[in-house]
């Protein structure tokens, strides 16, 4: 799978982990932790910095890896905030210029 469909799949998994906690799952750990939102936000900040550094260093593999970390943790933060990614997609669509 090399398209954005993986984001849909990832969101389905995150929703499933939220509804049915799985032992040993990092996603479950973050979503059920008392300070889960803070942890997710901490990672969003950390991964943003790592993403910027990878771009500045012109390291294609690291850029893709850090972008993946950032996207995953952003989805976790959206789940923790109870905002569906469809709201983000709708927002992007609303900005489309003719
Ligand atoms: N995409 C991810 C994903 N990306 C990152 N991580 C976890 O996020 C944690 C932190 O990521 P980092 O890259 O920062 O890891 P690190 O460099 O070791 O840093 P620290 O943990 O020390 O902060 C690690 O434990 C990673 O395993 C992820 N964990 C899960 N997923 C997806 O979620 C699905 C469900 O997995 P579980 O969460 O294990 O149920 C998986 O099938 C994957 O598709």
TrEMBL record:
Q: Does the keyword Transmembrane apply?
A: no
Output the Pfam families linked to this UniProt entry.
Answer: PRA-PH
Q: In which pathway does it act?
A: Amino-acid biosynthesis; L-histidine biosynthesis; L-histidine from 5-phospho-alpha-D-ribose 1-diphosphate: step 2/9
Q: Where in the cell is it found?
A: Cytoplasm
Main localization of the protein described in the UniProt heading: cytoplasm
Q: Does the keyword Chloroplast apply?
A: no
Instruction: Report which superkingdom the organism of origin falls in.
Output: Archaea
- Supply the alphabetized keyword list: Amino-acid biosynthesis, ATP-binding, Cytoplasm, Histidine biosynthesis, Hydrolase, Nucleotide-binding
Gene Ontology cellular component list: cytoplasm
E.C. number, please?
3.6.1.31
GO biological process, any: L-histidine biosynthetic process
Query: Which residues, if any, are the signal sequence?
Result: none
Its recorded reaction(s) are: 1-(5-phospho-beta-D-ribosyl)-ATP + H2O = 1-(5-phospho-beta-D-ribosyl)-5'-AMP + diphosphate + H(+)
Molecular-function GO terms, alphabetical: ATP binding; phosphoribosyl-ATP diphosphatase activity
Q: Which family does it belong to?
A: Belongs to the PRA-PH family.
Name the UniProt record assigns to this protein: Phosphoribosyl-ATP pyrophosphatase
Q: Which organism is it from?
A: Methanospirillum lacunae
Q: Which taxonomic lineage does the organism of this UniProt entry have?
A: Archaea, Methanobacteriati, Methanobacteriota, Stenosarchaea group, Methanomicrobia
Q: Which gene encodes it?
A: hisE
């Amino acid at each position: 799978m090399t398209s954005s469909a993986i984001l849909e799949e990832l969101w389905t998994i995150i929703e499933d982990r939220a509804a049915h906690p799985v032992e040993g799952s990092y996603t479950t750990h973050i979503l059920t932790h008392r300070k889960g939102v803070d942890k997710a936000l901490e990672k969003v900040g950390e991964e943003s910095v790592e993403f910027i550094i990878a771009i500045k260093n012109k390291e294609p593999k690291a850029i893709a890896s850090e972008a993946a970390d950032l996207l995953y943790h952003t989805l976790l933060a959206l789940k923790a905030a109870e905002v569906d990614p469809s709201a983000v997609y709708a927002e992007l669509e609303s900005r489309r210029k003719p």
